[in-house]
Amino acid sequence: MSYDNILVEQRGAVTLVTLNRPKALNALNAAVLDDLIAAFAAFEADDTQRCAVLTGSGEKAFAAGADIKEMAEKPMADFYREDYLSKWYSHFTSAIRKPWIAAVNGFALGGGCEVAMMADFIIASDNAKFGQPEIKLGVAPGMGGTQRLTHAIGKAKAMEMILTGRLMGAEEAEKAGLVARVVPQADLLDEAMKSATLIASMPPLGAMANKELVNAAYEMTLSQGILHERRLFQILTATEDKAEGMAAFIGKRDPEWKGR
Ligand code: CO8
């Protein structure tokens, strides 16, 4: 399948998706978001693909936000009738059960920051800048920014960023817990691909279950989350990959995962 606004490449078991509107700093218009949904749905459906990386083309931006030019003239009735953002939002959260990483180069602002925060984790280049500057446009984040940023970095920093539109650099973002790792700009893709390849080498059902469990920490009380964890642990003991993983450990050999 070909796309107009993104590049998609399979590298072994890793799908690399690149936002490709560099002249508009990879701003997320409806066409880009529709391409992203299609590419991630194809990734999710393809059993040979076990982890994805999402990045932005050019050195300047991962994505500078939702497309302001597209939103500027749109009447409120259309935003409401279309339930603007809901299909993209639900697709990138609950519909993607396989792991994926955001490799953030340059600006990740507004919707760009929100899409990055939907990833299982973020690896940032040293020139990355994160922000939710929607207040400066007279709106608010619309795809989870107020919630995910607050979960990630706490109320004080999230409130300051969201109320002032201040951007946060990569080093501060790592210290604050927004990103897993900061790497030099030149190494970003290699480092993200290395992490993705490692994840892709893990048992696929285990990867899916572990992702689900960490995400449950955002949705459930502690006791519900721990019960959910125990049940999924118990369920995983019935998989062929559990038998293989434990036999391989005891037999001092590499496991061969079946995804069953
Ligand atoms: N939308 C549309 N076009 C954009 C956007 C954008 N978000 N950001 C940059 N561009 C375009 C510029 O208009 C410009 O185009 P042109 O050359 O045709 O004039 C080109 O990209 C280059 O941008 P600049 O000349 O502005 O580059 P600078 O280096 O001077 O500045 C900045 C870079 C600081 C990133 C600046 O472009 C900027 O502030 N951009 C807007 C950032 C912003 O406000 N983002 C939030 C948007 S609102 C939002 O995301 C709502 C979230 C809820 C929905 C989520 C849906 C995914």
Automatic annotation (TrEMBL):
Give the highest taxon in the source lineage.
Answer: Bacteria
Please state what class of enzyme this protein is: lyase
Note whether Lyase occurs among the keywords: yes
Q: What is its EC number?
A: 4.2.1.17
Protein keywords: Fatty acid metabolism, Lipid metabolism, Lyase
Cite a single GO MF annotation. enoyl-CoA hydratase activity
Q: What is the protein name stated in its UniProt record?
A: enoyl-CoA hydratase
Spell out the InterPro entries in the cross-references: ClpP/crotonase-like_dom_sf, Enoyl-CoA_hyd/isom_CS, Enoyl-CoA_hydra/iso, Enoyl-CoA_hydra_C
Which organism was this protein described from?
Altericroceibacterium indicum
Any one Pfam family here would be ECH_1
What does the protein in this record do? Could possibly oxidize fatty acids using specific components.
User: Can you tell me which family this protein belongs to?
Assistant: Belongs to the enoyl-CoA hydratase/isomerase family.
BP GO annotations: fatty acid beta-oxidation
- What reaction gets catalysed by this protein? a 4-saturated-(3S)-3-hydroxyacyl-CoA = a (3E)-enoyl-CoA + H2O; a (3S)-3-hydroxyacyl-CoA = a (2E)-enoyl-CoA + H2O
